[in-house]
Amino acid sequence: MDAVDESAPRFDAFAASCPSRRLLDTIGDKWASLAVVALGLGGRMRYSELSARIEGVSQKMLTQTLRKLERDGLLTRTVTPSVPVRVDYELTPLGLTLLEPICHLKEWAEAHMAEVDRARDEYDREKLQT
Amino acid sequence: MDAVDESAPRFDAFAASCPSRRLLDTIGDKWASLAVVALGLGGRMRYSELSARIEGVSQKMLTQTLRKLERDGLLTRTVTPSVPVRVDYELTPLGLTLLEPICHLKEWAEAHMAEVDRARDEYDREKLQT
DNA sequence: CGGGATCCCTACGGATACTG
DNA sequence: CAGTATCCGTAGGGATCCCG
Description:
With 130 residues, chain A is mostly helical. The first copy, chain A, contains 5 helices and 3 strands; from the N terminus they run H-H-E-H-H-E-E-H. The interface between A and B is large, with 54 and 56 residues. Chains A, B: Keywords: DNA-binding, Transcription, Transcription regulation.
């Protein structure tokens, strides 16, 4: 390794202290990123809307995920004490900024996932021939 | 399920069948993304180099992760049958394309992680006052 | 409606020991 | 050196019941 410019925020994801590690704890969570994207596309959404939109998520996981994202300041939780309670979730400005990099990943997935699938098939076929 | 237009690659991360879900299985894995980044910065690397670079990873997880990435066609594994075996890992062209969107996330983390931390502190303080 | 609390099971992942 | 195999604890996460 050659000299590292300290003014450039180098990617020390390898050190356990790097923010990158904790970023993975946030968006690396399957449901968390889906929730962010859902709110990014849908704007303000109710709990039941999110639940319906994100197929396969249990209410335990959804609640847990939303709490986590609220704690991280990525979304707001608004309770309207009507007759049946109404709760709305919405991305904060900070949450909206996360939407962009996530969409880059989305585009990568859409563009290259077919290649990944082909690679998998090939790999699996080779291994089965053993 | 209603009719699905197969030509339009819309972002159905919410449908369990969408590539986005499987993308999360790949880069959502803590060690996988770190390995990709390590190889992105370091080029061709040996197993021991990766092990040293990615702090805190067990050899079980590292091996498992590398196999997964190899299977997905993101990196190549080259065995040199010398006296002690030498194994090198290197990103494929496909793996290199993944590096870009991951770096966008990295930049987001470095730019906003402080805000996240502040939000957390505030959230925790409010909750403890209950 | 939007959760909180509980039970329970599994698979993720670390530590250790062995091999080509 | 670069793994594979095994054991084993723990936490992730589903199902269920209940509450404001």
